[in-house]
Amino acid sequence: MRNRLIQICILSFFLGIASERTFAKQKPTDKNTYRVQAGDSWWGIAKKLGTTPKELAAINGRTEKEGLYQNELLRTGGNTTASKSEAQKTAPKSKPNSPLPGYEKIAKPYSELTYDPHKGVRYSRENSGWVRAALPGKVVHIDYMDGYENYIILEHENGWYSVYGNLERVQVTEGQTLVAKERLGTLIKDKGLYFQVNHNKSAINPSLFLQQGS
What we know:
By secondary structure, the chain is an alpha+beta fold. 24% of the residues lie in helices and 28% in strands. It has a single domain (1-31, 78-214), classed as Glucose Permease (Domain IIA) (Distorted Sandwich), CATH 2.70.70.10. Residues 1-24 form the signal peptide.
């Protein structure tokens, strides 16, 4: 089962650009999503769902000042006790750390927009020269891919995986066990870190992942 999840995580990463457009065309089956209709607004959707525009936008890694697009798929986050309980069970035991040692702006955010899906975030490259593990974990895959250069996949507790791309030099080996904030490698000059997070089979907004834990 573990090997299968690793393969899914790798497949999710490798097929990111090609498959996202295919997946985006599929109708959502998750009751915790909402498909934007013509004339919808953050305020109107939030009112239907019993939440606030600010909270709804935050769940989707956005702000209520950003525009909505027809047929866009939004996460609603769910509002049942069961969903909150499940989130508590699967959340990391410790709060994840930023994959970069210093603050960097996000150049391209996580997105489920049908016209421009993006399964991770890409940070700008202003100050950071090296990358670190967001949580304790094990190095399960190291490889190279055009567009993402050298990348590393770490496996964490409770079914979490994290991906680090655009590395010039890798300083860890497959099978190595790491502590939080341990150095993984250095970034390519003038390229920002690509950071993706999966929980089992699903890609998760990295910004939300970094807010989890206790």
